[in-house]
Amino acid sequence: MALVSKPKRPVISLQSSLSTTLCFIVVFTIPALLLLHTPSSSVCKNSFNQNKSWSGDLRTAEFAWNRLKFNQENPPSETLKIAVFSRKWPTSATPGGMERHAHTLHTALARRGHQVHVFTSPPDQDENVPRESQSFSPVIHWHEGEPGRWRYNKALEQYEAENNRREFDVIHTESVALPFHVARRVPNLVVSWHGIALESVQSSIYQDLARLPNEPISPAFNSSLHGVIPKVLNEIRFFRDYAHHVAISDSCGEMLRDVYQIPSRRVHVIVNGVNEKDFQEDLRLGNQFRAKIGVPQNASLVLGVAGRLVKDKGHPLLYEAFSKLKEKNSDVYLIVAGSGPWLQRYRDLGPQVIALGSMNPSELHAFYSSIDIFVNPTLRPQGLDLTLMEAMMSGKPVMASRFPSIKGTILVNDEFGFMFSPNVESLLEALELVVAEGSKRLSQRGKSCRDYASSMFTAQKMASAYERLFLCIKNETFCNYI
Ligand SMILES: *[C@@H]1O[C@H](CO)[C@@H](O)[C@H](O)[C@H]1NC(C)=O
Ligand SMILES: *[C@@H]1O[C@H](CO)[C@@H](O)[C@H](O)[C@H]1NC(C)=O
Ligand SMILES: *[C@@H]1O[C@H](CO)[C@@H](O)[C@H](O)[C@H]1NC(C)=O
Ligand SMILES: *[C@@H]1O[C@H](CO)[C@@H](O)[C@H](O)[C@H]1NC(C)=O
């Protein structure tokens, strides 16, 4: 009986390089993703309020430091000299998330009296550079060269000169502004990761799934797929060269500890914050804004979305889901704040979509005040979009893609809003739930969001957590939290 004489070739070996890649990704990723979904043992997960009863060595804390209360002595117990390496320093009206983080954090620390020196690339020529020269501002060292082009060697030269004057207590780099072979030699270095390669594995999966059945895979995306796993492996190998790691979401902290194998005491979770005063709910302003942009008085519900209108922020999904939703709900409106390739398509959806283009900070404040709920359909789980914190700070509930970062740090309580899988059906289902619920209930949810956001996501909270970490690096006495 020669039943097994000639094994059949498995059907799967149709030589599609994409399926090979995806298999590869899946094989490597499933364990990682499972890890991400194991319930975390953090203190008071899902609790509304901060836990004030925790005490111990801060370096052992696996939860976000934002949950703790830090006494802000004025002036601080010690004045630190801090070096910051950032590829860019914001000079334009619409800076990226990483630059905004650097700016918000280090302006706050300088205002507290710390001596902050920022090493960054030359500003873009057409931008009018505010030479921040008052005493409580960071000192900005723009290196020479092409505008916006980061050259760490040039920045290091300036750093050395300043370090010779008086040694820096801590050095902070925004992601890999300082490469690992330099980082290796710096024991008092802190790196903040604004998105890591393991998160981009998921991003690749979601982006390919969001492709329409007859839509060809783009060459750029296809070639990026082949680099995804090597990039993760590469990161795992070089990340250990950085002495201290700050994860900007709870799930990123878990990945750094569990997958990247960085000793727990060197991984600290500090969530980004936004300026509380810039995002307060203002109903009157919201109503004025509605009238100004032409939302009719009889609108039953107003949804809002903000940010760059590009594919990987999930706009194809929202576009599709909202075109279906509006058919059955003629009094539901969508306000779109931001610009990008999807702007015109939103405009083509008719009067129920009000697409405003880019907005300045004060318009953005009015925008948040005018909506009933904020939608973020992103396909990129890297980092954590500040818009979610801004919306909650403005007293609005949020709807967002079900990513570990969002689930673990933002939508930690069902009261705060809704999560959906990043596909049209799931988003549409969530939108229908929201419509059925109505604006009154959403406004109650918004109040809980505001409470939570103002305890967790303020710029001041972020700055005091970083200050404490920097002090702890300088002098271990400060690592003890009572
Ligand atoms: C804080 O932690 C303590 C002990 O770990 C627990 O008993 C208490 O319920 C927690 N409080 C909140 C608000 O989660
Ligand atoms: C994807 O990239 C691989 C290798 O880079 C190539 O062999 C393959 O033809 C590409 N497939 C598509 C659909 O572009
Ligand atoms: C809302 O009011 C406008 C006039 O402002 C009217 O044209 C429209 O039909 C009304 N829509 C609904 C759903 O009542
Ligand atoms: C660390 O800080 C504490 C409290 O301010 C101080 O008493 C101690 O002398 C400091 N240690 C060093 C090594 O500077």
TrEMBL record:
InterPro entries: Glyco_trans_1, Glyco_trans_4-like_N
Residue ranges crossing the lipid bilayer per the database entry: 12-36
Domain Glycosyl transferase family: 301-441
Assigned keywords, A-Z: Glycosyltransferase, Membrane, Transferase, Transmembrane, Transmembrane helix
Domain Glycosyltransferase subfamily 4-like N-terminal: 95-276
CDD domains per record: GT4_PimA-like
Pfam family, one: Glycos_transf_1
UniProt xrefs under PANTHER family: GLYCOSYLTRANSFERASE (PTHR46686:SF5)
Full protein name: Glycosyltransferase subfamily 4-like N-terminal domain-containing protein
Lineage, uppermost ranks: Eukaryota, Viridiplantae, Streptophyta, Embryophyta, Tracheophyta
